[in-house]
Amino acid sequence: MAFRKVIAASVAAVALSVAGAQAEDVKIGFLGGFTGPIESLTPPIFDGAKLAVDQVNAQGGIVGGMLSIVQGDTTCVDTTAASGAADRMVNSENVTALVGPLCSGATIAAANTAAIPGGVVVVSPAATSPALTTLEDNDLVFRTAPSDAYQGAMLAKTLREEGVGSIAITYVNNDYGKGFADALAASFEEQGGSVAANVAHEDGKADYRAELGQLAGAGAEMLVVLAYADGSGQTVVRQAIEGGDFSKFAGGDGMISGTLVAAVGEDAIQGMIATRPGSSETPGTSVFNTLAEEGGVNPSGTFVPQGYDAAFLIALAIEKNGNGGREGLAKALREVASAPGEVVLPGEWEKAKKLIADGTDINYEGASGSHEFDENGDVPGVIMKMVVEGANFAEVGQVK
């Protein structure tokens, strides 16, 4: 009898050991510009993604294990750094998928050098360049923010509705800046406005007075800066004010940060107009806002809802795929993001796990809206109008 008990105990121990071996943890990566021209925008986006990971683990974990997230720095503007960070994630950390990068050039570099060769799904919450639409990516690169082809048209519409008749554009000379500038210029002129000048500039310079002289000489009533609040955008605006070149400013999502206002002075840019991807008014939006506030995350931060959605979608796809491997994940991502299916809202991980286990199709309706990925991995998204009020940008409403 004693011998039988020993045998039974040994069998049980082996069974537990096998179960433990099967219940492996899953690792995903987050690539963002923790240093460089968007260093004030990146941490809140990471917090949004981390909130999704924490909710997954608090509600039973993923494919029998726990979900973890590791971070890497792309600097936003250094494609070599972005490629190196992606290579570490894909080949050393062995992540299943990536949230980010955030900047368009970094995303393209990371995808081409590491993610696509490694078969790793990329979901960027903030890379908005139209160049990503035509990237040859083997259906591995997705984004939860709309393309600047759309945002450019919406910024043009916003400015025309404000009565702005002529603009000068300066843009950071990379995939993000050029794509945004081209879309804005074309749409602004289509809507009856005049683009007096459209001048590229390099990020990281100490002096942009030569470019500003060219821009001011064109005689436009407003300067549109398509760059980064912690980089060239801040310097351009500050030097434009100091030199008396412009008194009216507008910008895109990369310029929306309280650090810009603090750096150039509240009085100097009161009323500055900007646009950014936002959240549609869906049930998922209000649910996320509550969850984020409870978790100490700012739900209205630039690209924060998109960061949460990217991480939560990846987790849902991994659960749907049934393992922590890379193969089949893109197909699973499309399945969990699209109708038809039972709706799953932010934070409803336990519900989603049960539905997936029962073989029921799900449709994630996220913090920033629906994510019905098109054939290029793009989403239509929502564009919000922002205006500087006091020490920061305030949300005015959706541009329709």
From TrEMBL:
<keyword id="KW-0732">Signal</keyword>
<dbReference type="InterPro" id="IPR028082">
    <property type="entry name" value="Peripla_BP_I"/>
</dbReference>
<dbReference type="InterPro" id="IPR028081">
    <property type="entry name" value="Leu-bd"/>
</dbReference>
<dbReference type="Pfam" id="PF13458">
    <property type="entry name" value="Peripla_BP_6"/>
</dbReference>
<protein>
    <submittedName>
        <fullName>ABC transporter substrate-binding protein</fullName>
    </submittedName>
</protein>
<dbReference type="InterPro" id="IPR000709">
    <property type="entry name" value="Leu_Ile_Val-bd"/>
</dbReference>
<dbReference type="GO" id="GO:0006865">
    <property type="term" value="P:amino acid transport"/>
</dbReference>
<comment type="similarity">
    <text>Belongs to the leucine-binding protein family.</text>
</comment>
<dbReference type="InterPro" id="IPR051010">
    <property type="entry name" value="BCAA_transport"/>
</dbReference>
<keyword id="KW-0029">Amino-acid transport</keyword>
<feature type="signal peptide">
    <location>
        <begin position="1"/>
        <end position="23"/>
    </location>
</feature>
<keyword id="KW-0813">Transport</keyword>
<feature type="domain" description="Leucine-binding protein">
    <location>
        <begin position="26"/>
        <end position="337"/>
    </location>
</feature>
